[in-house]
C-alpha cells in the first residue's frame, strides 16, 4: 500500500482553509558570562497554514489541540517554523511554543505548532 501525500486529507484541508500568516523568525542567544538569554527578531515572511485560535468556534477543539495553547497552526512539513518564532494573524501576535510532526509510520503529513498570545 502506498500513500500519496499530495492528495492527503491534510493537503485538501490546507487548500481549502489555509490563511496567510506572517512569521518572524527569532534567534535566541545566551550571554556566556551571565547566562541571560536574549531573543532577536529577524525579517518577517508570509507562510500559509491552517490557523485556529482558542476563541474561534470549530469542531476540532474536542480532541484537545488547544488544551495548552491560545492558538495552533498546521503547516506542511516543508514550511519552516521554529520554537519562539512570532506569528502574526489578524493583527495579533503569538509566540510558537511547541511543534509536533504528524504522520503515519515513517511518512509525515504536516506539523502542528502550539502558540501563546503575546
Please explain how this structure is put together:
The longest helix is centred in the N-terminal third of the chain and has 9 residues, at 9-17. The protein has a single domain (5-117), classed as Thrombin, subunit H. The chain contains one helix and eight strands. The strands form two sheets. It has a six-stranded antiparallel β-barrel. Strands 2-3 form a two-stranded antiparallel ribbon. The protein has one helix spanning 9-17, and strands spanning 19-24, 26-30, 37-41, 45-53, 71-76, 86-89, 92-104, 107-117. The chain is globular and about 50 Å long. The mean pLDDT is 83. The chain has 118 residues and is mainly β. The termini are far apart.
The description of the largest β-sheet is: 6 strands, antiparallel, barrel
Give me the number of helical elements. Answer: 1
Mean pLDDT: 83
* Strand elements, count: 8
Q: Can you tell me the number of structural domains?
A: 1
Q: Would you list the SSEs in sequence order as H and E?
A: HEEEEEEEE
Shape: globular
Largest beta sheet: strand ordering: 1-4-5-8-7-6
Q: How widely separated are the two ends?
A: 45 Å
Amino acid at each position: 500500500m502506498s500513500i500519496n501525500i499530495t492528495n492527503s486529507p491534510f493537503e485538501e484541508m490546507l487548500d481549502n482553509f489555509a490563511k496567510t500568516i506572517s512569521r518572524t523568525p527569532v534567534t535566541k542567544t545566551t550571554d556566556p558570562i551571565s547566562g541571560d538569554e536574549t531573543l532577536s527578531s529577524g525579517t518577517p515572511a508570509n507562510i500559509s497554514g491552517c490557523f485556529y485560535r482558542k476563541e474561534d468556534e470549530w469542531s476540532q477543539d474536542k480532541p484537545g489541540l488547544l488544551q495548552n495553547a491560545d492558538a495552533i497552526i498546521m503547516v506542511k512539513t516543508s514550511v519552516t517554523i521554529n520554537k519562539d518564532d512570532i506569528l502574526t494573524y489578524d493583527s495579533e501576535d503569538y509566540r510558537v511554543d511547541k511543534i509536533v510532526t504528524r504522520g503515519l509510520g515513517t511518512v509525515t503529513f504536516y506539523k502542528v505548532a502550539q502558540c501563546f498570545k503575546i
